[in-house]
Write a sequence for this structure.
């Protein structure tokens, strides 16, 4: 393919950033872009490096210039229009010059009301309007996955590692924006796991399985990991043999924790027995559902656990390569995992002859760049392959035709940690906890108006009331709980005895989703919450299909009219309109994003949580911002 | 005497499915839409489509062609789903009609569909589209404004206006215009420019969500892009977003008269390939050149000479 490029050329800095990434992978080449790209067979295999290459430029200089994109296009033999299409898909990238320090301020459902909006106001005063500023600027962000420490911010710093601050204090954020903080200092604030995982506080919670090493193990040490039972599961797996491992998994009835609750054993069996080779493993660590932070906590405090679990999954399903796709807003988890992967590789736990057992498995970490949709499994595959993160048409399913068209296992982070547990106790014992499709333990992300927010591990079947008690009870009087995330729905105070199982939730018309339990007290502004959720889906729609692309816009507009008490026609007309929109989004959208985009709004309406949106007495008092 | 070429294709197994209770038999590998077009009732054969074209691989983006398939919780795109033995398809349910109506309505409320052709106008009528119920359309965006929106960020609306894709038409070359107020983001042009015909890859979808759009690299004007003016994107555009400058000018001058148009079929003389050309003539001059989608050589696609070389014919 001949590429035609514009005259714009990369700066030395941009070129160096791209070449530092690509030279070791592709071998160096003449640096004259005008000479045209390499052609031929080999060129086809490079597109998957597009997202890493864009990250390299963005990390180094803070934005993606036309010259830099030309250089990337040349080196990877990707048409420049495609490079542009991919670059403009992600919220963390920008193709216009931007300040080298960018503060992403979470204004989402958990953070907005407890300081996110105040931070936005303070930064407007100190740095200027959103997106504007020479040295530093601030932008709004959807949930940063730090809700238990709300309010949260994340710093993207050109030429330096990114970092998070949570809880974010206004003075510290301003100081950091002016250059007064580094990733090392910021990471230190996350040193104590007891903040995010209250069950690890003394007295340590009983029966922790997925969380058992957290607070006990040093997340930076492979030796310490092994001293705490690390790599026993892999040894056990190898002893059992691959097909027996799949059997144990089927016996365990473990279902996926990424939201769709598909039986993991069935998925593994499909790929393990697929004739087409090679097979690929993908770990979905994109965790971007508002209110969700369980995967982050696992990865930050027990990173070797994920490396081991992926190794087992890869080995059992015949994959030599696993991709770990982590959301771009998780700098600390990324650092810890990069370190863990390197250590494991150095010590022979990854690579050509794992454990001396004669099998090959290695992990490649890929960073997302700000796109909730890339958590959808087929969008994630496209993102890894260097295409826009648009979901694919299913069937074929990934287990048949996934990454690079090959049979692919995709599992959520929490699902994979469960695999260690299955191997530890055996499938039947695992299945003896909980019932039906809800076996084992489940992590919940408890936040909002509770005394002690954090990640909690409970057995399936624990009631919502018991979980809230575990989290220290409520702050204030409970109005409602958002269960399952923005794609979930609301649960009322008289439903707290619902057993937390897939089946129990379904019975009350709810869903466990990604394990979000976000409590709202009677002072909460639920209209603002719903508007934020509607805005979230409008922002995160990939734009591929009409029901979701336009439906999410119309849904947000209708809610805005209801909020202002200015319906087109009357209130009933608007509710009918919202219902019409909900049906087409649910029935005709390509993927789960569009299909669930109306869920929370419809749930709130049917529970009459917005019986009169303009009336503060039924909706709590609106915070008055500056 | 001419002999038709003998196609030595694979002999395909026949698959039996039911559509609205009626048994239909089609070759394995057909899509539901193909089954309905080949073997369905007139109503089934008239299933609305927007992003589908006979000469492109299914894109599956617009979702106007959805049907119910037993066992599937959500509706299924008939243009992309291949048939299976025993499949039970319903095209006449309330669920199907509702989704089709809403897809057309959502498009009509956000995009100028006035040049999308007679079929689309008829479907909108048949399905009872009421685009006005979303409120008055918002004023058009300034030139280039939609091209600069940032993924994941938008201004919260107050709902007083319905957001649209309206924007000034892009006229940056002598051959064709891009009127993205009419763009339904069906991706057909992208596919025609890329892997389905042209392999030029001059355009791609850029941005995200409602702010997604078809763009060249860095929104360069066409003469600065990789475009070779084959016009294959024009050939597949269903809504008149892409059209020849000639047609654009005549329409602007209110001189466009499709009723008067005559079509002459000829063979392109520029090279030895021998593409079939259809010369569309209004008021004695060529306004467009197309090629039939079912033509075995072109599959409806041409190059710049066939598509835009008519200037030289007219000057003879
Ligand atoms: C819009 C959308 C976002 C998703 N985000 C995630 C995510 O961040 N993490 C995840 O594990 N699964 C996510 N999923 C579910 C995945 O598509 C997929 O079902 C899951 O990764 C499979 O792994 P599991 O079987 O282990 O749950 C998402 C789905 C949708 C529709
Ligand atoms: S439902 Fe939304 S996110 Fe999913 S493919 Fe359609 S437009 Fe994209
Ligand atoms: S005219 Fe041809 S090359 Fe240019 S954008 Fe259209 S399809 Fe691509
Ligand atoms: S320009 Fe035409 S062909 Fe291209 S996406 Fe828009 S409507 Fe479809
Ligand atoms: S981190 Fe702010 S809402 Fe989750
Ligand atoms: S015609 Fe089938 S999805 Fe567009």
């Amino acid at each position: 393919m001949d590429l035609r490029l514009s005259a714009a050329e990369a700066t030395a800095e941009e070129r160096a950033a791209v070449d530092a990434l690509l030279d070791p992978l592709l071998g160096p080449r003449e640096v004259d872009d005008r000479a045209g790209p390499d052609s031929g067979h080999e060129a086809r295999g490079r597109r998957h490096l597009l997202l890493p290459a864009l990250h390299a430029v963005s990390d180094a200089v803070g934005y993606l210039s036309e010259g830099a994109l030309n250089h990337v296009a040349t080196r990877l033999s990707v048409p420049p229009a495609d490079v542009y299409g991919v670059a403009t898909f992600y919220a963390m990238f920008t193709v216009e010059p931007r300040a080298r320090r960018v503060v992403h301020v979470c204004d989402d459902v958990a953070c907005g009301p407890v300081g996110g909006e105040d931070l936005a106001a303070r930064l407007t005063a100190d740095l200027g309007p959103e997106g504007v500023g020479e040295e530093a600027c601030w932008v709004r962000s959807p949930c940063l996955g730090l809700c238990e420490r709300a309010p949260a911010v994340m710093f993207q710093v050109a030429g330096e590692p990114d970092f998070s601050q949570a809880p974010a204090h206004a003075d510290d954020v301003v100081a950091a924006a002016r250059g007064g903080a580094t990733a090392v200092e910021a990471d230190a604030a996350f040193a104590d796991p007891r903040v995010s995982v209250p069950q690890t506080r003394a007295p340590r919670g009983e029966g922790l399985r997925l969380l058992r090493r957290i607070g006990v193990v040093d997340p930076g040490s492979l030796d310490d990991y092994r001293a705490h039972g690390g790599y026993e599961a892999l040894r056990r797996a190898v002893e059992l043999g691959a097909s027996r491992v799949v059997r144990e998994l089927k016996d365990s009835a473990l279902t996926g924790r990424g939201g769709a609750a598909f039986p993991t054993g069935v998925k593994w069996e499909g790929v393990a027995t697929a004739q087409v080779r090679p097979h690929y493993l993908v770990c979905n660590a994109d965790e971007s559902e508002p209110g969700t932070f369980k995967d982050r906590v696992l990865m930050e405090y027990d990173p070797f656990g994920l490396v081991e679990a992926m190794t087992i999954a890869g080995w059992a399903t015949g994959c030599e390569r696993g991709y770990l796709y982590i959301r771009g807003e998780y700098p600390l988890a990324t650092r810890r995992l990069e370190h863990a992967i390197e250590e494991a590789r150095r010590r022979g736990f990854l690579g050509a002859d794992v454990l001396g057992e004669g099998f090959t498995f290695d992990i490649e970490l890929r960073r997302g760049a700000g796109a909730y949709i890339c958590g959808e499994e087929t969008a994630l595959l496209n993102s890894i392959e260097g295409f826009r993160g648009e979901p694919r048409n299913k069937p074929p399913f990934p287990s048949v035709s996934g990454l690079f068209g090959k049979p692919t296992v995709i599992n959520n982070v929490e699902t994979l940690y469960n695999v260690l547990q299955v191997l530890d106790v055996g499938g039947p014992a695992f299945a003896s906890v909980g019932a039906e499709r809800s076996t084992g333990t489940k992590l919940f992300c408890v936040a909002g108006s509770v005394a002690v927010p954090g990640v909690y591990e409970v057995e399936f079947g624990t009631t919502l009331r018991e979980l809230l008690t575990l989290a220290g009870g409520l702050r204030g009087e409970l109005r409602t709980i958002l269960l399952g995330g923005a794609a979930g729905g609301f649960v009322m105070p008289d439903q707290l005895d619902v057993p937390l199982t897939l089946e129990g939730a379904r019975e009350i018309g709810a869903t466990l989703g990604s394990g979000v339990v976000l409590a709202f007290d009677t002072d909460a502004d639920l209209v603002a919450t719903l508007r934020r959720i509607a805005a979230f889906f409008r922002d995160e729609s990939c734009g591929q299909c009409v029901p979701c692309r336009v439906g999410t816009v119309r849904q947000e507009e209708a809610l805005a009219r209801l909020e202002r008490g200015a319906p087109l026609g009357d209130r009933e007309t608007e509710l009918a309109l919202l219902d019409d929109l909900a049906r087409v989004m649910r029935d005709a959208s390509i993927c789960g994003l569009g299909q669930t985009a109306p869920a929370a709004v419809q749930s709130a309406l049917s529970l009459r949580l917005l019986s009169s949106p303009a009336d503060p007495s039924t909706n709590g008092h609106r915070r008055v911002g500056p | 005497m001419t002999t038709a070429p003998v196609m030595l294709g694979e002999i395909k197994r026949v698959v039996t499915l039911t559509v609205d209770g009626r048994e239909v038999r089609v070759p394995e590998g057909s899509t539901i839409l193909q089954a309905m077009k080949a073997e369905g009732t007139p109503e089934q054969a008239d299933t609305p489509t927007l992003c589908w074209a006979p000469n492109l691989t299914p894109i599956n983006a617009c979702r106007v062609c959805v049907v119910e398939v037993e066992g599937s919780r959500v509706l299924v795109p008939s243009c992309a789903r291949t048939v299976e033995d025993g499949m039970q398809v319903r095209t006449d349910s309330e669920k199907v009609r509702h989704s089709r109506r809403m897809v057309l309505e959502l498009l009509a409320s956000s995009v100028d569909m006035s040049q999308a052709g007679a079929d689309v106008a008829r479907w909108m009528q048949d399905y009872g589209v009421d685009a006005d119920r979303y409120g008055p359309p918002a004023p058009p965006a300034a030139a280039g404004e939609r091209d600069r929106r940032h993924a994941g960020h938008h201004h919260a609306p107050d709902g007083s206006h319905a957001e649209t894709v309206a924007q000034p038409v892009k006229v940056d070359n002598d051959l064709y215009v891009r009127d993205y107020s009419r763009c339904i983001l069906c991706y057909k042009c992208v596919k025609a420019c890329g892997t389905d015909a042209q392999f030029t890859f001059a355009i791609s979808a850029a941005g995200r969500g409602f702010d997604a759009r078809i763009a060249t690299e860095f929104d360069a004007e066409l003469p600065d892009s990789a475009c070779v003016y084959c016009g294959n994107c024009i050939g597949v555009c269903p809504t008149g977003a892409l059209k020849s400058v000639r047609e654009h000018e005549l329409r602007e001058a209110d001189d466009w008269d499709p009723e008067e148009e005559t079509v002459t079929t000829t063979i392109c003389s520029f090279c030895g390939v021998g593409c079939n050309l259809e010369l569309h003539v209004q008021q004695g001059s060529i306004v467009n050149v197309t090629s039939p989608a079912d033509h075995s050589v072109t599959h409806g696609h041409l190059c710049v000479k066939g598509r835009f070389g008519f200037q030289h014919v007219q000057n003879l």
User: Anything to note?
Assistant: The mean pLDDT of chain B is 93.
